[in-house]
User: Which sequence fits this backbone?
């Protein structure tokens, strides 16, 4: 496998992110925002716009993986933004909208499977719900992902792993959005069937690991570069699932605790017996993520991504409102090292400059 030209230190990565990644993401999201504004159905339009307005940082973070795509980095950004936009849109439809039907959630998330399958025809993903007419919005998102995947001759090499990761993601989204009394029984039963892949985890930690799209973005970006083999695909899977992906989502849930409590949403951080145990398990995920990414190609890049996640999430102003949040932030940054602290301060500065803090 040939060496890619990726940033080799935290400073060069941040310069590239601000000069290349964020402008590209902004262009892509501007297009999808205009498409969302044209959705005829009021409920679907509301949820599509809300997902873009409140969750655009998901696309910004995910798009960093486009640097692994070499000359095809713009195509990688296009895929990552479209795929993450589907994810965020469907999350809103399942979390904030009018249905609690698992068949509806399963059909909606079939779009994410189809988006990873270039030869798959699109469907009416809204067939199980009353709100139907999105003016082709979800179909266009799916086809955009398919068109990007058609650009790589290495799709057959990555197909099975992409669908495995998406299968876990889709299962999670179905189980976590059903009626409140059904969620935990469904999630624990699902975990029991899959825990051979994650024997060191609890059901809620396994669920968190399943809820990240980072492994998909990493795999697709390497494939677009023409720089992937079956061995590397397996290394990416083992490197990102469960620890990097699990840490990603646990941090996401950690900063959203107050909001989720207010809204009555499921939050995996609520299931730890104490804040002390939560802290110890986050330490464990940081340690294991560091260990597993050493086996990846471009390990320094992946280590920066991993530490950047810690700095990015802990840099959110919501941490200050959480009980003992400042102490947790200090200890996790210390456990993650200087790179995480560097990304933390960059995140704080970015939020201040963009009036988000």
Assistant:
């Amino acid at each position: 496998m040939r060496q890619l030209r990726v940033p080799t230190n935290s400073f060069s990565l941040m310069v590239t992110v601000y000069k290349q990644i964020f402008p590209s993401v902004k262009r892509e999201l501007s297009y999808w925002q205009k498409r969302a504004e044209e959705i005829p159905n009021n409920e679907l339009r509301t949820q599509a716009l809300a997902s873009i307005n409140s969750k655009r940082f998901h696309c910004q973070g995910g798009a960093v993986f486009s640097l692994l795509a070499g000359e095809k980095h713009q195509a990688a950004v296009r895929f990552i933004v479209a795929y993450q936009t589907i994810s965020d849109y469907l999350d809103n439809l399942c979390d904030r909208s009018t249905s609690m039907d698992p068949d509806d959630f399963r059909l909606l998330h079939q779009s994410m499977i189809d988006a990873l399958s270039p030869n798959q025809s699109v469907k009416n993903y809204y067939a199980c719900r009353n709100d139907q007419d999105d003016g082709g919005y979800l179909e266009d998102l799916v086809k955009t992902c398919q068109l990007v995947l058609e650009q790589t001759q290495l799709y057959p090499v990555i197909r099975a792993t992409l669908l495995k990761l998406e299968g876990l993601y889709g299962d999670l989204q179905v189980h976590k959005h059903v009626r409140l009394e059904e969620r935990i029984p469904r999630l624990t039963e699902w975990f029991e069937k899959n825990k051979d892949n994650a024997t060191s985890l609890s059901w809620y930690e396994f669920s968190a690991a399943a809820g990240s799209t980072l492994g998909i973005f990493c795999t697709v970006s390497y494939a677009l570069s023409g720089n992937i083999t079956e061995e590397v695909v397996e290394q990416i899977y083992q490197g990102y699932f469960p620890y990097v992906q699990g840490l990603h989502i646990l941090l996401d849930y950690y900063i959203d605790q107050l909001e989720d409590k207010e809204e009555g949403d499921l939050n995996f951080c609520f299931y730890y017996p104490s804040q002390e145990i939560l802290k110890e398990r986050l330490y464990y995920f940081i340690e294991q993520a560091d260990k597993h990414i050493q086996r990846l190609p471009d390990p320094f890049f992946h280590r920066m991504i991993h530490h950047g996640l810690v700095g990015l999430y802990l840099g959110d102003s919501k941490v200050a409102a959480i009980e003992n949040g400042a102490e947790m932030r200090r200890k996790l940054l210390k456990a993650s090292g200087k790179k995480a602290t560097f990304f933390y301060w960059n995140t704080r500065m970015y939020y201040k400059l963009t009036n988000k803090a």
Remarks:
- The chain is about 70% helix and 0% strand.
- The mean pLDDT is 92.
- The radius of gyration is 19 Å.
